[in-house]
Design brief:
Radius of gyration: 33 Å
Strand content: 35-45%
Largest sheet: 4 strands, antiparallel
Shape: elongated
Structural class: alpha+beta
Number of helices: 4
Helix content: 10-25%
Length: about 450
């Protein structure tokens, strides 16, 4: 018999006893906990048998409240509110209708461009085509081309702004097959990077050029947050021209519906307009400065208020040397009379501007500027929107109806409809969105309104 065998047996017996004691103690604790819980339940029920019914009532109230809030959200914000497009994963930075009005494309901060099909505007849900942008690109603005399916997308990355043109591939014939294949996804046809160096693109504006000898192609303007504006050929991506506003910073740029003029709203009260010159074969020859709108002025009250604000910040104009005081005063004056937004009339012969000086002005741009004839102010009226203290607010965006009679304007999340002839408020929709209005900046849902 091996001398190690008794030691092994003894070790095994001691281990079994130890395990028995440990597990026995554990199960005893579990049993005592179960017993204590079982005793506690009847005591609570006997003490106050009506208490459990209260949470049941409150839960019903909560459910009812939640259902009511959902109903409230689904209600139309305004009689002119047609529908809401949902499904975006983040804020929407830009949108554009197709020339035929049957499609709507949106640029979302979730990195996705969505093309909605608007066959029936009253539908509860809309079919859309999802286009995922290249990694690291956040879409900020979009524009349709003349074929109603191709789009130009402006994106922002850490290295700067880019432009992508997406177009659908022609589907192969089905060869008599009854079951047709799904239409192919749009593909990138051209792209440009660092379009405005590291500066972001504020907005894209595209229009079909029909003026004079223009060939009917879509031209697209990209407006930099600095002072640069570039004009592009929509289909081939060729750079057609570059202009500089020389006005510290841009607010937006637009092109007349016929493709003749390009205009910019910037830091100052003056609006610069350029003419897009076409060759006999219909292509763009050059972009030249045509005229300048001068008519928005600063009020003495606004300047005095700005100077008071500077003095409260311990900046005294009279104490600044080397003429900086005059320069600061000029900058104050320019900023308080800056044109914030503008648009052309449907027939391209007029323009409407909105300024921080608190006025809207309608201009006649159908002048012989080659003979130094200046644009004329046809009419002007005060902005009919004020804050709680009575101060006039400025408009962020404006758009004219196809018949030129109704002007839709926005400030933050407030939407107004004005008579374009008189400036009279026709209707107002307050808090049309949770955040800024959809025209360029928006939340995760889109609203369609009648204008």
């Amino acid at each position: 018999m091996s001398p190690l065998l008794p030691i092994i047996l003894l070790t095994t017996i001691l281990g079994a006893i130890t395990a028995f004691l440990i597990f026995g103690n554990y199960f005893k604790k579990q049993k005592s906990e179960v017993e204590s819980l079982a005793k506690a339940e009847p005591n609570n029920n006997n003490a106050n048998p009506k208490k459990p019914s209260k949470p049941a009532i409150s839960s019903k109230k909560l459910k009812h409240h939640s259902h009511a809030s959902d109903k409230e959200q689904n209600k139309k914000h305004h009689p002119l509110d047609l529908n809401t497009l949902k499904g975006h994963g983040d804020s929407v930075g830009g949108l554009c209708f197709s020339p035929d009005g049957r499609n709507l494309v949106t640029a979302c901060a979730d990195g996705v461009v969505r093309v909605f099909r608007l066959d029936d505007i009253s539908n509860k849900s809309f079919k859309f085509l999802r286009i995922n942008m290249p990694a690291g690109n956040q879409p900020v603005a979009v524009a349709f081309l003349e074929d109603n399916s191709s789009i130009v997308v402006a994106t922002q990355t850490l290295s700067g702004s880019s432009l992508y043109m997406y177009a659908e591939e022609k589907a192969n014939p089905s060869n008599g097959n009854k079951q047709q294949a799904k239409p192919p996804l749009p593909e990138i046809k051209w792209e440009h990077h660092k379009v405005h160096e590291k500066n972001a693109i504020l907005n894209l504006f595209g229009t079909t050029a029909t003026y004079g000898s223009a060939d009917g192609s879509t031209i697209v303007a990209s407006c930099s947050e600095a002072t640069e504006i570039k004009l592009w050929h929509g289909k081939n991506g060729k750079l057609l021209g570059t202009v500089d506003t020389n006005q510290l910073k841009n607010h937006m740029a637009t092109i007349s519906p016929d493709g003749r003029f390009m205009a910019a709203a910037a830091f100052t009260a003056d609006v610069k307009i350029w003419e897009i010159v076409y060759t006999k074969d219909g292509s763009v020859k050059e972009v030249v400065k045509a005229m300048q709108l001068k008519g928005h002025k600063n009020s003495a009250i606004q300047i005095a208020a700005a100077i008071t604000a500077l003095k409260s910040a311990k900046i005294h104009l009279l104490d600044v040397d080397f003429g900086l005081g005059d320069m600061i005063l000029d900058i104050i004056s320019m900023n308080h009379s800056a044109v914030t937004c503008l648009c052309f009339s449907p027939n391209s012969d007029k323009m409407i501007t909105a300024s921080k000086d608190g006025t809207l002005k309608v201009w006649n741009t159908n002048v012989r500027y080659h003979m130094d004839e200046d644009p004329k102010i046809l009419r002007g009226f005060p902005i009919p929107l004020h804050d709680s203290k009575g101060a006039t607010l400025h408009y962020d965006h404006l758009s004219l109806s196809p018949d030129g009679k109704i002007l839709a304007v926005t400030h933050g999340s407030t939407l107004q409809w004005l008579c374009a002839e008189t400036g009279v408020v026709l209707d107002t929709a307050e808090k049309a969105h949770d955040g800024k209005f959809i025209l360029y900046r928006e939340r995760t849902s889109l609203r369609l309104h009648i204008i």
